[in-house]
Amino acid sequence: NSAMNNTGLRVAHPGPRGRGIGEDGAVPTPLYQLKAEFFKSLGHPVRVRVLELLSVREHAVGEMLTQVGVEPANLSQQLAVLRRAGLVSSRRDGAVVHSRLTSEQVAELLAVARNILTTVLAGNVELLEDLRADDPGT
Fold this sequence. Notes:
By secondary structure, the chain is an alpha+beta fold. It is built from five helices and five strands.
């Protein structure tokens, strides 16, 4: 009793009587592992840039090429990863393929990541300033 989840992992559903093992004997994928797979789908600069663009609005793939700065085959590959992860969906309008986020929560996740990075980088600047203040050569 297993199915593919949106990250491409085979996930077993709990068996009868809540034993946690599927009828086929498969053990469910732990949530922490699913989370790790989810974050791996965000682990490429092109994918992050695509998600940033799509956080603003739907984009045609061709129009993203100039803003992302990669070859069409690379962009297509990265979009496929995001689609498999369930973060992006695509629709065809004639010869033009348009992509969009599947959920506004993806944009919110990027905003939270930006806030975390801002805090971390501000702390690094303060540390650097402290180091410079302690350096007798400055």
